[in-house]
Specification:
The chain has 15 helices and 2 strands. It is mostly helical. The two termini are 13 Å apart.
């Protein structure tokens, strides 16, 4: 197991290095314009552009430029010349809000995704399966921005059941929950429908495996066969999706939800940086998001090894 983890961590480091090089090339080398001008902003003075060139190492060779810029980003010294803020500090400040949004939404979509997927697979072809299929397809078909707008209009402004948009710290659990319940639902509905369909399909495939028929032939109860043999071996595609989806959301992928509900997290900061063409902020957020995607991919691999020892043994043998 240790060898398996070491290989995954080394692979993740290599991927992060490749992503950092690609980001550096895209933002600094590929465009035909002066990179110092883009980073300094549209209304930058000639003196500011010269300062940026020196600070970001644009007067040096490409390897030195790469090292200088990665050092600025990863040591917390990169700053936005448009917003006049420290970019890394702003990202760190936004993590609690983004984490609260994503973790709460993930709990909801996993709970309903697992419940609907399991019931659909167990009652495959019946009226319950057809009804849950319709609900899942409705959830998948509803755009996040549309659902969020409807929820805001009816539950915040029409009947005033929930407070206006914004984020409250967890230090006040009541306000924290009331401000996040609508964003959680908006973000979770799409994923819940999709995950239920994936789990249903995976469970139906596993039900036809020989070891499942053998378990039934041994006299095991239907519930034990479904939970221990079918459900557990159906989770690998779900874990794969969750690792990718959750990593993207934590890394700033919940842009639409945070923008509509005015949640000052990483997603809202990303949207503001894109709107203002704030290149230092965009670079930092891109690498921040890549880190979380790679991190959750490692966790997915660990989940694979736990659910299916053949994966761990195969990696160790290789």
């Amino acid at each position: 197991m240790l060898r398996f983890l070491v290989r995954r961590v080394l692979g993740a480091i290599a991927v992060l290095f490749a992503i950092s090089v690609l980001v550096f090339l895209i933002f600094n080398v590929v465009p035909a314009t002066n990179p110092a001008q883009r980073i300094a902003g549209k209304n930058a003075t000639p003196q500011l552009i010269k300062n940026v060139e020196k600070e970001w190492g644009f007067d040096k060779s490409l390897p030195e430029q790469y090292w200088t810029q990665m050092k600025l980003i990863f040591t917390g010294e990169v700053k936005s010349y448009n917003a006049h803020i420290n970019v890394d500090e702003r990202i760190v400040e936004g993590i609690p809000a983004t984490a609260s949004l994503c973790i709460g939404a993930a709990i909801i979509w996993l709970a309903f995704g697992f419940l609907f997927g399991y019931l659909s697979a167990v009652r495959s072809g019946g009226w319950l399966d057809r009804g849950l299929t319709v609900l899942a397809l409705i959830g998948i078909s509803m755009p996040v921005f549309w659902l969020a707008s409807i929820l805001l209009y009816y539950f915040t402004y029409k009947i005033e059941l929930f407070p206006p948009s914004g984020y409250e710290p967890l230090s006040d659990p009541g306000k924290w929950f009331s401000h996040l319940i609508l964003p959680w639902i908006s973000l979770a509905v799409l994923f819940a429908g999709f995950y239920s369909r994936v789990l249903r399909s995976s469970m139906l495939d596993v039900m036809n495996e020989d070891y499942v028929r053998t378990a039934r032939a041994k006299g095991l109860s239907q519930r034990r066969v479904m939970v221990k043999h079918v459900l557990r071996n159906s989770l690998i595609p779900v874990i794969t999706l969750f690792g990718l989806d959750f990593g993207v959301l934590i890394g700033g992928g919940a842009i639409v939800t945070e923008s509509l509900f005015n949640i000052e997290g990483v997603g809202l900061f990303t949207a503001e940086a894109l709107k203002q063409q704030d290149f230092p902020s965009i670079m930092a957020v891109t690498l921040f998001g890549a880190f979380f995607i790679v991190l959750f991919n490692i966790l997915v691999d660990i989940g694979y090894a736990y659910l299916d020892p053949r994966i761990r043994l195969g990696a160790s043998a290789a």
